[in-house]
Amino acid sequence: MLPTRRDLRFRIGPESARHWHVEGAALTHFVNAMSLTFPEGERYFIHTVRHFRERIRSPELVKAVTAFIGQEAMHGREHEEYNRRLDEAGLPAAQLQAFVAGFFDVLKRYLPPEAQLSTTIAQEHFTAIIAEALLTDPQLIDGADPKVASLWRWHALEEIEHKAVAYDVYQAVMGRGVRAYALRAAGMVGTTAAFLALVLGLQARLMIADRRPGGRGGLARMARFMWVSPGLWPRLAKPWLEYFKPGFHPWQNDNRELLTQLDEIVLRAAA
Ligand SMILES: [Fe+2]
Ligand SMILES: [Fe+2]
């Protein structure tokens, strides 16, 4: 699977960015908080993979890495635009993004490059399984602002398209032995905990700053959405655990048929 870099623009308005999910402010800001982590997060993924580029022997994998970097750079740009709209809507997005940048700087400074890569492949798995949920269960995003929904669908599709690239780099560098497995598993546990703490913290800050009527509401609806119906967390449990199988590879779950949805997204973004 060779990913393709697509230069798409979604042109979200400030009001849409602030209030786009039908389940209310809490869920909207939970997802907005993920958007706040992406520009710096994706620069970090690029940084961690690029570090090992010289050590890759397979020409196909070198090409895939170039495409992966191209896709993540485009995601970063579009999420930066999206986050700028949050600022224009009166939310402290720039300030929160600076905090996120500090978080990733700490990882770059104190984690060895192999451990940095293990956090990237964990995050890539996490985003790929959320992406599959989003693309296969329409309830997760039904009724949302169409431009914001298109941006998230595009990002989800490309996350699936390149889901194995950083993983293949990790295997090429680290091999498949016990040390590689232990670092990969530890990377997933640490990354999941850090990602949830970071996103929930950012969500809380966005909700405190959202002064429109209803801007601080919707927590009970979000809890129901996450745990019961449509139930994002229970749905992610099995694919999350699959990552801990010693012989795991992202394409053991062959969901490439979802990528046929890309044509429609490309057409819509061009319209
Ligand atoms: Fe991405
Ligand atoms: Fe990615």
List keywords for this structure.
binds fe (ii) ion, 271 residues, mainly alpha, Ribonucleotide Reductase, subunit A
Q: What layout of secondary structure does this protein have?
A:
Blueprint: H1 14-18, H2 25-50, H3 59-88, H4 93-110, H5 113-136, H6 146-161, H7 165-174, H8 178-209, H9 219-227, H10 232-242, H11 262-270
Helix pairs in contact: 2-3, 2-4, 2-5, 2-8, 3-7, 5-6, 5-7, 5-8, 5-10, 6-11
One fe (ii) ion is lined by residues 45, 72, 124, 127, 159, 162.
Overall 3D form? globular
From the alpha-carbon coordinates, what is the Rg to the nearest angstrom? 18 Å
* The number of domains: 1
* Bound molecule kinds, no repeats: fe (ii) ion
Number of DSSP-assigned strands: 0
CATH top level?
A: Mainly Alpha
Uncertain parts: none
Number of helices: 11
Protein name: Metal-dependent hydrolase
Transmembrane segments: 181-202
InterPro entries: UCP07580
Keywords: Membrane, Transmembrane, Transmembrane helix
